[in-house]
Every structure is written in C-alpha cells, then in structure tokens.
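User: Is it possible to get a 3D structure for a protein together with its bound compound? The compound here is 5-hydroxymethyl-3,4-dihydroxypiperidine. I've pasted both below.
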Amino acid sequence: MTATAGERALVDPLPGVFPSGFRWGVATAAYQIEGAATEDGRGPSIWDTFATVPGHIADGSDGLVACDHYHRWAEDLDLLEWLGVGAYRFSVSWPRILPGGGSRVETRGLDFYDRLVDGLLARGIDPVATLYHWDLPQPLEDAGGWAERDTAWRFADLAVAVHERLGDRVSSWITLNEPWCSAFLGYASGNHAPGRREPAAALRATHHLLLGHGLAVAALREAGSSAEVGITLNLYPVHPATEDASDIDAARRLDGMQNRIFLDPVLRGSYPADVLADLSARGFGLDHIQPGDLDTISAPIDVLGVNYYSSFCVRSAGDAAPHRNRHASPWVGCDDVDFVSRHLPLTHMDWEVDPDGLRQMLVRLAGDYKTPPIVITENGAAYRDLPGTTGQVDDPERIQFVESHLRAALAAIGEGVPLRGYFLWSLLDNLEWAWGYSRRFGVVHVDFATQQRTPKSSAYRYREIVAANGPGPAL
Ligand code: IFM
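Assistant: Yes, that's possible. Here is the predicted structure of the complex:
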C-alpha cells in the first residue's frame, strides 16, 4: 500500500498506512506507578488493603512506592516527549481526590494531576484521563463496594470533581478501565481487590460499574464538557475448540460473560438475552437492574476504548471441569468451561499471542454494533526483560508483539474499521496487580531498587514507528 497525501507510511518492515490524525500514545494507571500512597492526604484504596494480606500479591509487594511516579512525573513526561507520542493515557487515583469516598475533595490530590496535565500540554502531548482504573477508596468498599448501587453515584461525584479542575485542559475522558476485571476478578474469583468470592455480588458490581459509567457520562455532559468521552473494555475473541455443540455453547457463554455483558448495555441499551437467561437459569437474581438504568448506561459515547491482549479457545468440560473445586472461575456461570491451548507463543503472563484476534475483534465490533470511533487504549506484553552487560535492555519479543498487532490493526482499518488510535501498554515496568513487580510490561525498564529508567529496544522501535506515522492531533 502506498501512502497518499495526509497519510504517512509506517516505517519498514511494516507495510501499510495509518489514517491521517491517527493517535499514537502509551498508557499507565495510577496505582501501578504513582506510589506516595500516604502522601498529600491520599486515603487507602481497596488495593492498599488487599496487598496487606499475605498471598494476595505474588511477590508480597504493594503500591506504596511503585515507580515513584508521584515524585518523578516530570522525568517520566520527558520520556514521553522523547518517545514522540501525541497522547498519554493515565488514570486519576480516586482515593487521592476523594479520600473518604464521599464529597470531601483533597485539593492536593487534584494539584498533582494539574501539574501532570500542564506538564503534558507543555510538551505537546494530549492528556487522556481515565477516571477509574481499579483503585476504589476503601471506605466505599466498607459500605459494600461496587456491589452497592450507591457507589455508581459516588463515581459520578468523582467525575465532577476531576472535571471541575481539569476539564479546561483534558479533551479525552475514559470513564472505566476494564470493568470486567473490577467486577469479576474483584468480586467473583477474588484474584483482585477487594478479593471477594461472591458471584452474585460480581453481577451486581457489573451493573453498578456500568451505571456509574452512564452517570459519569451524563455528569460530564451536564458540566458542559465538549471533550470526547468513552469507556475502555478488555475484549477477547472466544473460539470453540471443536464444532461440538457443547463447545460452541461454552464459547457463546464465555463470550457473553467477557464481552457482550458490557458491549450490549453500552452500545445497544440492553443486556444480551442469552446471558440473562443463563444467569436466571442458574438462580441468579437480576433485581438490581432497575427501570431506566439501561437508558443511562447507553448514553451516546464518542469513543470506544479496546484493550486487547489475547484470545480464548474453550471447550465444555462437562462434569470433568478440573478447576471447579479448586478456585472460583471469574466468569460467573462458566465453571464448566475449560481453556484449550493452541500452542501459540506465550508471554510471561502465559497469555497466548494472537495478533489476528485483534483484527477479528475490531471487525466484529464494527459489524455487530453501531460503534463510535474505536481506539486501542491498551496493547502490550510482559516478557522477562533483563538489562544486558552494558545496561541496555533488549526486548525483541515485545517489538515483534507490537509490530504484529499494529499490522493486525492496519488490516482492520483496511476492512473498514473506524480505528483512530493505539496506546501501548505500558510506558514503564510497574506493579502488575496480583503479580506485583514480577511481570514487566514497560517499554521503559524500571530498576525498582534505584528507580532508574532505561528505555528498552522496544521504546526505540516504537519511537521510530510514531515518528514515521506522526503523533497526530486529537480526534
Ligand atoms: O496492567 C494491566 C492494566 O492495568 C489493565 N489492562 C491489562 C494490563 C496488563 O495486565
């Protein structure tokens, strides 16, 4: 494909062109990088509490210091400028801004994001702010957390408080990051904070997260915001392992609980009928879904954020489900669904690398839904990156991962998908939730003993790709 006016070719060896204005960025999240967990009036979040319980975080670590970004933010913004990205996706820490979970605003918390946003703009980088990336204030969890309806309104309060301070400079808002993780890892399997294993609460949390999204969209619009607003979902194509009807049904159910339970309410204003029927058949009550909620949830959005890491191949285990009694499956009602290896290359997370799954998911979204423009708000991989003898960090697997996924994104664009941007996860090695610091996703290596940052070879390569394609203005 040859670049036309207004388009620039992705540097060799990636053939193809990204549309003019395509947005190139990197992403992070507050709890994973900020540290300074008790500074400037920040209150405890569910992750601070969760991390105190032995066994919850694989390496026994916590977010007290993390990448010390709270103090080193200027150095980190310099890295962004060096990378040449046009946008930076960060999240605001709810317990820094509303430490008690109520309406008392901690201005020192807002001051931090004020400095960050000004620092980005001074470097010519668009701030993309995520309002919730999993760090619920602990007092709200003490009152029931996302399983309680009231939490949705508290989230809208956060949106208002942040918008009041930053709304004059932030032109892109993401309400929630990956509500699947908040609801299902947090409340069903308990692998994530708050560590509850209550499937019924996970379903309530799902709905209240979605409701919170809708209320936050409304609050931003009511505040007169002309910024683009969207939600970020972690989506996975789900393939049946065989043509057997039971495997096809297993794939349908898993797809329902991973993808459609979020996509349909937001983009169609209804829960998928088959998902509701499955849940009712399994005895789950649905009375938390109240009249009018779905209208709120399906308020028009300007952008759909897609986080893509892998795809799933599943089969029905029938009565032989090996994990059924060992640990709860996060996918409520899917304890009898087994994951089948396709012997694809694995990342350090043991996630199968399937770039074409990204193309498939994007094409499906554009075909099945009336989607607004789509942005890949996260894509990346963890590998065992170690500094070499001269201090350099070579990560050829990550380069291959990113390039292959960019090719898949280009293919999707070629098939008519309105894809407008790509944010690499992540700028820095950071606290990978229940894996602690043992899994490195950054294009910049962090030595957690010294906090020294070293761009990996993938950072140099991404810089080259961005330079060849242009950072692009806001959508
Ligand atoms: O680190 C996470 C991020 O917080 C949310 N999306 C997936 C990433 C890798 O697991």
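The CA atoms of residues 167 and 224 lie 9 Å apart. Residues 199-222 form the longest helix (24 residues).
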